[in-house]
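Internal QA ticket QA-208
Title: Verify multi-chain structure generation after dependency bump
Assignee: T.L.

Test input:
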Amino acid sequence: MVANIGFGTLLITLIVALYGIAAAVYGQRSQHEQWINSARQAMALMFPLLTVPVLSLLYLLVTHQYQVAYVSEVTSRSMPFYLKLTALWGGQSGSLLFWSWLLAAFATAITLRDWGRDREFLPWVIIVILVTLVFFLFVNVFFENPFSRYWQTSTGIVQAFARPEGAVPFVPRDGQGLNPLLRHPGMIIHPPMLYLGFVSFIIPYAFAIAALVTGRTDDRWIRLTRRWTLWAWLFLSLGLILGARWAYDVLGWGGYWGWDPVEISAFMPWLTGTAFLHSVMIQEKKDMFKRWNLVLIILTFDLVVFGTFLTRSGVLSSVHAFAQSAIGPLFFVFIALTLSVSLGLLLSRWKDLESKNELHSLFSREALFLLNNLLFLGIFVTTLWGILFPLISEIVTGQKVTVGPPFYERATGPLFAGLLLLMGIAPLIAWTYSSLKKWGRAVWKPLVFSMLTFPALYIAGITRWQGVLSFWLVGFVFAVTVYEFWRGAAARIKAHGENVFTAFYSLVKNNRRRYGGYIVHIGVIFMALGVIGIEMYQVETQGTIPEGGSLSLKEYSITYKDLVSFDTHDGRNVTRAIVGVTRSGEELAEIYPRRDYFYDANQPMTIPGVKSTLAGDLYVILVDWREISEEGATFKIYYNPLVNWLWIGGWVFIAGILVAAWPENELDRVQKVSSPLKKRNR
Amino acid sequence: MGEEMDVKEIKNRGRIKFIIGGILIVTAVIYLIASSAKANTQYYLTVEETKMKYEQGELSDRNVRVSGAVIGESIAYDMENLTLTFTIAHLPGENAALNAEGGVAAALHQAVNDPDRETLDVMYEGPKPDLLVHEAQAIITGKMTLDGVFYADEVLLKCPSKYEEVSPEQSG
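Actual output:
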């Protein structure tokens, strides 16, 4: 019943969306305003309509309707309530529905804005968003139906939405349960953030296409979507950071990023999106890079679609798997179609998009922005190559090959370092034209300050040149960024006689985009610190120790105190070791590395015990133990220097985006709303 | 007239700088990709292919990646030396062949129960992975040693039967 309501509404939504496209096209052609309005209303209906199938699926998930195949695949009776809710995006068909629902929310929101003088964009924005939505709904309805059910027929059990002739419903007693690896708080919020980021990049793309079609190729579309882009970037970045944190907390291999194709597919739109975010500033300021920006947003859109597909399908293991998965060719066709139509439109407007200004000097801020874009694109091409090369090789030579993390690390490392260096140079370079002398005058103070890293590194015992160079670079960029804040604040103190705090506050408040950006840069610097620490200086050891025995790594030592084993109410058996940590003989903490065994999934999961400080994490894994602890247990210990800065940097990064993206007139609006109320109270 | 020419010339000269700069960067990226790919590309083989190439002496000291089906009773963990040993059975590499055997789960089941399959002994130093169980698909990266044992640096596991290609009989 509920499944019928859900699927029925899904179908209706698809039909309404198709109607909306048709109405927008017709209204635009015939210049009948009422048809465009009708299309607008159709798009406004998307969110309320799609909420019905989403609620239906949630209802089925929490009420254990195991006849529905999706419910049976991703939940089980023993799972806690909140995990049954989050199972909405725990499998392929559910997550596609969830994706469409988020897009529908934005689609509805965008119809509600005041279109005023941008009315000419409206039909095209509707068409782009609805075509994208129709594609995803189509996949959901015809290929990945979350409401499909099990039926017992004479020949066996089949999966279908409608009852086959002579079949009776088949209801499994219990579900398979969500993959234990996904039963983690990080997994509750990581996929929605990633999807929000994916979906919100569709809005600037829709406006870009509208600008191309209507020929309004000035920077209006960029100004209109500037904030959308920032929010999209915020969500995508947060999704990536949370994913890394989840890997660190749960996967138990002492790392945070494995360059696996699924991770890369979420990273690629972030790379092009970040390049876009930087280069639109040049278009706004200097009216340059117009074509380039359109290329970037088109690329980002198609990478978002590609990423949605890859994160859920696992086709990358082989080209043959790609051809055989039902939705593979569909996505391929959709991406090829949107890419060629978009680029075709871009070419047809090529002449209109000519820039009035040109780059004059290699030593100007514009040129460095261009370099920044090239580096981001370089990293993007490298990662794309890493994904495609095995597929190409298989087609051409028939020989399966793979490229692992060492490929990505070696190929992208210098490019990342280049980006970091640019972050230290570009802020002090003038627009249009700069000279070495001018730059030298600006840079000498931070440069001298950054030299302090050398004695500090020497004392810390870091002497390998790669390490010294990396840490110095981080110190230099940090000094430049802080110096920028200082210069701005000092000018205010001089000009307005403000004290230090008000000066900093009003500096950021009056130019939030710029200083929000610098806060993001500081976040990146901190993250770089964490990455350098764990990548270059991680150490590990492992050993079997009896109860009361110890194992040491660097100045740390762990003592195996006890082992307990118990069942939990949510269907796990937990085996937990109690481990004391000392540093240089001094008692530091007690940590609890453990192994959870999930009965329903018949699968264990290793969760590390971590003692975390700003200097580094001691990361302990319980590897194995004897039943009666006569011979003790086996532990693996990692020391991950500075890794905490990766997470701190992540939060600073997000805070910086918030500073830049927060609606400008928030305070005014609050005042406007509150004043009539005050009157009434009197 | 002459003045216009000059302006154009200056413009072109300005452009050349940027074109050269662009080419340099593109070259650098291509160099990075090519050299890294050359150093880090590995064969992805089945157990049969691994044995064959090994006997022909093609694998000497080369890092390869091998996929196979884990035979549950072969899994042994030596706590003293912290070494893990297990055996994998040949699993077809082509999806068409996998599907002919009834999907990945069925193919894994068949592989471990067929006594005539080629097998490969694997040794790994490190903790026992959570997903290393009977009929799991193991993807191992490492080198063949002289005694015909595969020395793995990395063990990845997939259990397709459990989460993706679910057949309700298993759960009912």
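Spot checks passed. The first strand of chain A starts at residue 149 and ends at 153.
Status: verified.
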